[in-house]
Specification:
Order of helices and strands: HHHHHHHHHHHHHHHHHH
Low-confidence stretches: none
Oligomer: single chain
Helix content: over 70%
Structural class: mainly alpha
Radius of gyration: 20 Å
Amino acid sequence: METHATALITDPMGVFAFLAGIVALVFWLSGTRRLQPLFRVVPPVIFVYFLPMLATTAGITPSSSPLYSWTVPYLLLFALLLLMVSVDVRSILKLGPTALFMVAAGTFGIVIGGPISLMVFGDWLPADAWTGFAALAGSWIGGTANMVAIAESVGTSADAMGPVIVVDTVVGYGWMGILIAMVGLQERFDRTARTEAMGEASRRLEEQGDDRRPLTLRDALLMIGFGMAGAVVAERIGDMLPAMGDPTIVSATTWAVLIVVTGGLALSFTPARRIEAAGASHLGYAALYLLLAGIGAKADLRAVLDAPMYLAAGALWIAIHAAVLLAAARLVRAPLFFVATGSMANIGGAVSAPIVAGVYHRAMAPVGLMMAVAGYILGIYGGLACAWLLGMVGG
C-alpha cells in the first residue's frame, strides 16, 4: 500500500476536498434516473467506503493523515448528536408492544449470534477478527453510524474493516432478498398469528404530523454550533473517564459516544428536537458519510481477500438472528410481517426496513421506518454489549 509520503495528495485539506468530492459524486449519481437501479442493489454507502479505499490503494490518497485523526472523533460525535436529538421517541413508543418486542428480539439475536459465530469460525480468522465482528454488530443493530462508533470504541483496524463491509453488503442484502421471497409464506404463517397488532401500529402512526420546513441560515448555524460544541465537550469528558474491560471495550471514545447518544436522546424530549423540522438528521448523515469516506481511505483493499471465512461466519450469525426472531414470533403470535420488518429494522435500518414492510403490506412502509428508528436507538447499547461478549471470546 502507498504510504503518506508517496501519495499523490498529502495535504490534509486536499485529502478532505478529494474525499468530499467522491461523496458528492456518489450521491449525485445515485439521483440520476439511469443509475437508480444500480443504487437500489448497491447502496451509496458501499461506494462511499470502497472508492476512497481504491484511491489509497492506487496511491492517490495517503493511508495515514492528520485529517483522519480529526474526523473520527469529531465528525462521529457531531453526527450522532444530531441524529439522536432528531429521534421522535414518543412516536416509536406508540408502535405498540408487538412491534417493539420483535425489534428487541432481532437485536438480541444479533448480540448472541456474533459471539457464537466467532467461536465456530475463530480458528480460521485473524486474531483481531473480534473487533471487526464488533463493528459489524453495530451495523446490524443500528446502521452505519453505530458501526463506526463501535469500531472506534474497540479499536477496529482499517484492515479489519474491509471484510466487514463485504459481509455487511453480501450477507445483509442477501438476507433481505430471502425475507422478500418469504412473502409467499405470509398467509400460511399468519394463520395462528395476532394480525390486529399491525392495524394498531398503522393507526397510531397515522396520528403523527409532518412539520418539515425549509432550512434557513439560522437553522444551519444553530445545528453546526450545537453539534460541534456538543462533540468537543463529550470528547473532553470522555478523555477524563477511565477505560474499562480487558480487552478494552469502554474506551475514551466509547464514553464520548455514550454521552452524546444518551444526552441526545434526552434532548429529543425537549424543544431542541425542533431542529429536525429543518433537517438536522440530514446534516448528521452528511457528516457521517464524510467520516466513512475517511475510514475507507485508511483501509487496505487486500484485506477483502479475508472475506470468504467472514462470509461463512456472517451467514451463521444471520441464521441465529432469524431463529431467535421466529421463536419470539411464536411466543407472542406475531405475524410474519413483524418477523421480516423486525429483522430489517436491525440488519438493514431505515433504508431497507420500509421496503420490506411495503412488500408485505403496502400501506405499512411507515411502520417499517419507525421500527428501524427504534432499532437505531438500541444500536449503540446492544452493539457495546455484543462487543463485550466478542471480546471475551476472541480478545
